[in-house]
Known about the structure:
By secondary structure, the protein is of the alpha/beta class. 34% of the residues lie in helices and 16% in strands.
Amino acid sequence: MVVKGEESDKILELFLKIGLDERTARNTIANNKVTANLTAVIHEAALTDGCDRTIGNLLYTVATKYPTNALLHRPKLLEYVVSSKIKTPAQLEASFLFLSNVASEYFKQKEFEEACGVGVEVSLEEITQTVNEIFEEIGELLGSIRKKHPWADPKTAKQLVDAKMYELLGETTAADDEKPSKKKEKKEKPAKVESKAVVVDTPAQPSEEELNPFSIFPAPEDNIKHQGLTQIAQGGWGLSSLDPGHPYRLHLLFRFGSNHLTGAQEKVHTEVFFSNGSVLRCCNTRERLDNHLKVTGGRVFTRFPPEPNGYLHIGHAKAMFVDFGLAKERGGCCYLRYDDTNPEAEKKEYITHIEEIVQWMGWEPFKITYTSDYFQDLYELAVELIRRGHAYVDHQTPEEIKENREKKMNSPWRDRPIAESLKLFDDMKRGLIEEGKATLRMKQDMQSDNFNMYDLIAYRIKASIYLIDFTPHPHAGDKWCIYPSYDYAHCIVDSLENITHSLCTLEFETRRASYYWLLHVLDLYQPYVWEYSRLNVTNTVMSKRKLNYIVTNKYVDGWDDPRLMTLAGLRRRGVTSTAINSFVRGIGITRSDCSMIRLDRLEYHIREELNKTAPRVLVVLHPLKVVITNLESGSVLDLDAKKWPDAQEDDTSAFYKNHVGPVPFSNVVYIEHSDFRMKDSKDYYGLAPGKSALLRYAFPIKCTDVILADDKETVLEIRAEYDPSKKSKPKGVLHWVAEPSPGSDPLKVEVRLFDKLFNSENPAELDDWLTDLNPNSKVVVPAAYAVPSLRNAAVGDTFQFERLGYFSVDKDSTAEKLVFNRTVTLKDTYGKAGK
């Protein structure tokens, strides 16, 4: 809900005081999140009376770009901004990077200042000298082109270099011609700020990509090669500084095309370089693209293609956000396509789970399909591939294939006659060849620098026994005994389903050459391919193989164990799909690989969500009996306790009243054992002999006596007096639960306290990763006490147990006993137990 009226005017005035122009200020107010962040930043910086615009611009950047996992350090950063120790956008960006890495941990001030260039001054003379040195290299660049092509037209070479500089720098503007001033800027005092119409830098607005992470993707109609760029490429002027044979040159060409060309120029462009020097320029013809657009109506078509060989984890949440999110943002469609090409690893259980979890995550598939739906099409195209001379039947063992690929050696059957391969492939299909005795391989480029062009396998046999029995497939039945590989099927089914954007994680980047090669030789429509960084979270494993191992060997309690980063496990733990999607969106869609996202960043989004949605209740994990001696035995007072801390007093729905079960207060209450000590200290706010503490929503109590066990150390019971007038004001506030009626125990519940599953941040990199399992990742409290209002809680309901954390009702709950899982603690405890 957008702020209005008098409140809006006050916020507008506050934003104008820090130097925002009125248009920017009003646009900011229209965004609730940015408004709240900027208001908080201004107050943290103690600049409610105003500041100069330079500092104001930096405050705006802090409000819009500051890393959420390091909020603890934001006040310290603002001290540097206000004192002008950090005064440029570059320094601010450097501080964000530094603080996002340290997150909530302590950092050394000297290291921070070095990372952010605090105290470093660069003079105008130094900048001028460096610019002159850099531009002297332009002449060397033209000389390099003449050296490589001595007979080329120098005028054409210069025009092309100029064109590249234009693409990089754009049009010259009046601002470019302004000479930098050598005068030192005078610092203005906040109290004397005046809103004058002067030419200043505009605040650092959130980038289009930050506001809309899907803006980086081209439109479907742009998926065609532009003639002008084709001529440049054919003219030999390289689009990359790397050698043509470099395995990553394809990636650089592609990114250049998609991110830097504008208008009618090409936005989707890939070149595959072969070892013989030839170049495959992958693109759609105008006719092929027009046919595609006719089928799709010009809409975006994506697909989420999980393999049904396990439960989805949080990495798949990012994939769903990218695939479904792009389609939703562009008004298009997203398939849920099961990549079911391996019948031995796939189960109906996994298929059912995936469909359910996709819906729980808030996504609605346009259509649910299976790669196996296209088995006949894939087979016929494989036959065509052989006919065109681009595939052959191979009889090498898997070990021999691996060895020869490592040596870049051709298979002895690579050049067998086409008719022979056709006959053998038919025998494979009919089950006349045993498993392991033959495969169909694509004839690609065994001398390429890209190992994913080493004649990849297109088809393999799965357990055929001479026409008697085929390995059953969970969706296709027992019709087939040959199954296509991922490298063969994936790109073809993308094309058959008219996918506009084929999006996958970076480990598939080197497969792009094979993807386009296959579609090219079969004359099929070619989708736009783009890879993004996979999501890795600390203190867990994301590999399906490792997950399957710890599930199968019972290191955890199934695929939905709340300690796992499976989406089923997170849901059972009490994490909401909206919190997960918020976490993923905050990470963004980037290509920065090898990044490990800290667990506390996810927990931040979980707390943000549950703080708004989880009602507060009183639960005591380790009860210690307190007998209140000045309250009549048997008397019970019904107290009002807020479900929401910020609720207004006249909002009856915000309190636990009799209609949902009272919060009883009697002469027997229970507090946490940890909230009582025999010896008091200045920094301790709990209960101690002769000391008072306030019972939340109730009364102050004072400890008057302690009942000890025979060992004279173990505390069995406390005697106390309460202050019905509430005149005493103790500092400590305790949560508690009372006997609901004389002689009857409070509601008894089981509470499961979950912690990180592995001690190390990246257990997957350890050789003996199983030894890194945290033995305290699950602690069961079998007999906690809870207020009566929890009695009717249902599976999946979430609550904040005051002072303890957020908890959710587990599926193991029964009518006799509720079971609660701790979703997350109230505060970040990530770094406190070590790593």
